[in-house]
Specification:
mainly alpha
């Protein structure tokens, strides 16, 4: 993922969070029907992809494991990919 793509993803992610924090109805919709809620913000979800939205709590944290890259990775590549996946 390029820096521009990462910045765009971070920006979209931030906009989704801000909307959920400021609009309880949107938050409820995001948790119940992520595709519809994201579409409302103009965020396209690729065909065949599903979206699951979960809410962290003070005493509960979710850790998302990204798919393992194909092929062998050098230690530097592994470090970069793992750093890029933390969000």
């Amino acid at each position: 993922m390029s820096n521009t793509e990462a910045d765009d993803t971070t920006s979209v992610h931030g906009a989704i969070i801000a909307k959920a924090w400021s609009d309880p109805a949107f938050k409820a919709k995001l948790l119940a029907d992520p595709h519809a809620a994201l579409e409302e913000l103009g965020v396209a979800v690729a065909a065949g992809k599903t979206v699951k939205v979960v809410e962290n709590a003070d005493r509960h944290l979710h850790l998302v494991l990204p798919p393992k890259p194909r092929g062998p990775l050098s230690p530097d590549e592994a470090d970069r990919l793992s750093a890029d996946s933390v969000g």
